[in-house]
Design a protein that fits this description.
This protein is mostly beta strands and 334 residues long. The chain has a domain at 27-187. It has three helices and 31 strands. The protein has helices spanning 149-153, 227-231, 325-331, and strands at 3-6, 12-16, 20-23, 26-32, 35-40, 45-49, 55-56, 70-77, 81-91, 94-103, 110-119, 126-127, 130-136, 139-145, 166-172, 178-182, 185-190, 195-200, 206-213, 219-220, 233-239, 242-247, 250-252, 257-259, 264-267, 270-275, 278-283, 290-294, 301-305, 308-314, 317-323. Strand 29 and strand 30 form a beta hairpin. The protein is globular and about 55 Å long.
Length: 334
């Protein structure tokens, strides 16, 4: 399988072979510096530096149980560490999650906190505290949050692991390694120097309030973003040009927004997003929107870092491609 690049006029400009592979179909992708990490349905965790062989991270303990139905469905890559989320879904009646972290490129990974999840076989159906995680600027930020999964999927009327008077934000890759904020908050984004948090209400739903903090815990000036956008946020990026928010309906930047139905990545002043099978690129500050590549699937994942943009796609096997910034700049000149 190869990837077709598009020129400004939609003409195929080049074909690029995959840089490395992983077993299973891709569930999440993350970039940091010159590295990219991909996790798959087969509990595979691979870290690659383009131009060098990819390393296989020793999988989390649940992945090594031959009787378990476990996948790795979340990954956040920092400068020197990786954070991975596991999901065990033995039936439609419940899910169990776990957060694991360790050094790159090969681990090993150890669990942070305990499992959390839901089941419709017990009352209450929720158990354990959930985690919110974000990465950027070589740093991974994470916070323990109330678990509302059984409110959404089961029979519970309120979250388990209810919020306390403060939320502790744990930081991997910077100093100090944690700070506390009064109230209940979820981690939304970090650029290594700032952490964006969204406030949660008593039901663990976003209130739409956004706040920025330094790693020291000092509250910083916060950009104005519509509460509806923060409530709908799936992921966000802190950039010198402002905060970029991806929702299930599209991308919202300080200057423009676009509806799309696929994955989103942000890096070096650019937003990359999928619309169908077409990968688009546009500058955060505005300007033309350009088609960059036609992908094998609309369900591909993308991540941006110093290497350019990485693309993960596949079914039984994941293929990871790279488009360097110099190629992107030929489509979207400075």
């Amino acid at each position: 399988m190869e990837l077709a690049f598009l020129g400004v006029a939609g003409v195929v400009a080049a074909f690029v072979p995959p840089s490395f592979h992983a077993p299973g179909y891709p569930l999440d992708l993350s970039g940091s510096g010159s590295r990219v990490a991909v996790v798959t349905s087969e509990c595979s965790v691979r870290v690659g530096s383009f131009g060098r062989p990819a390393a296989t991270v020793r999988p989390p303990a649940p992945c090594r149980d031959p009787e378990a139905s476990v996948a790795t469905d979340g990954v956040w890559l920092g400068r020197d560490a990786i954070v991975v989320q596991t999901i065990d879904s033995p039936s439609p009646h419940g899910d169990t999650y776990g957060i694991w972290t360790g050094p790159i490129p090969r681990g090993p990974l150890h669990q942070v906190g305990s499992d959390w999840g839901w089941t419709d076989s017990d009352v209450p159906g929720g158990y354990g505290c959930a985690w919110s995680v974000a990465s950027g600027g070589g740093v991974v930020a994470m916070a323990k949050t109330p678990n509302a999964l059984a409110v959404v999927h089961g029979n519970d009327t309120k979250p388990v692991c209810p919020a306390g008077p403060t939320t502790t934000i744990r930081l991997i890759g910077t100093s100090p390694s944690s700070f506390a904020v009064r109230g209940s908050w979820s981690v939304l984004a970090t650029d290594g120097k700032r952490v964006a948090l969204e406030r949660l209400d008593a039901n663990a739903d976003s209130t739409g309030e956004l706040a920025l903090f330094a790693p020291s815990g000092k509250r910083l000036s916060t950009p104005t973003v519509a509460a509806a956008t923060i409530k709908a946020a799936v992921r966000a990026w802190l950039t010198p040009d402002g905060i970029v928010v991806a929702t299930r309906r599209g991308v919202v930047t300080p200057r423009w927004s676009v509806r799309e139905g696929g994955d989103v990545a942000v890096g070096y002043g650019r937003v990359l997003y999928l619309k169908g099978r077409t990968l688009h690129v546009r500058r955060i500050r505005g300007g033309p929107d350009r088609p960059l590549a036609t992908l094998p699937s609309s369900e591909a994942l993308i991540a941006a870092s110093s290497f350019g943009v990485a693309i993960a796609t596949g079914s039984e096997t994941t293929s990871v491609y790279r488009i360097p910034w110099r190629t992107i700049d030929r489509v979207l000149p400075r």
